[in-house]
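Anyone have tokens for Putative two-component system response regulator? Sequence:
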Amino acid sequence: MIAEDDPLLREGLTLLLRAEGLDVVAATGAPGPFLSAVDEHRPDVVIVDVRMPPTHTDEGIVAAVEARRRQPELAVLVLSAYVEQAFAADLLASGSARLGYLLKERVGRVEEFLDALHRVAGGGTAIDPEVIGQLLTRPRPDSSLERLSPREREVLALMAEGLGNAAIAEKLFITEGAVHKHIRRIFAKLGLAPDDRADRRVTAVLRYLDVAER
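Reply: yep, here.
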């Protein structure tokens, strides 16, 4: 399902997804019809614009949260015209699967957009690299992060985008074994011991982005 108030983008997304063999069960332009369609069609994944009528502030986000309340297994890919750090941070801090946040300009890069959509639909996370870049510029009070090498910071930034080890290796032109070693060093430097009660990968990302509660 698509919830996007710009009719040209909404129609373009519909045509793109159908051309890829995906079933677009509904395409709406406002929160009310979007939620009604969620109840009616029970989609696997929704693409939602952050800003929708009537005020064009956070209606899309509010509607997406309500849709997840009604259908907890729903995958949500949020689109935004620009980085809204508060929501991006909240999204990462939630630690929830099946969530993504992309800038609308990423839609024009069809392979990247479809990869993110499939990743979210498959239970993963997809965060726009530009979002990660802006979050990384914020002050980080955790002094343990200063011990990370430049390469380890690169690996952690790609982890924050939701990439797995194989994809990180491909991006950085290194082996998966090297990625695994970097991640082990990251865990060690951040003092993250193996613990069944916490996902070290998620904890490391949240600490790096300074969005986890301390």
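The two ends are 36 Å apart (CA to CA).
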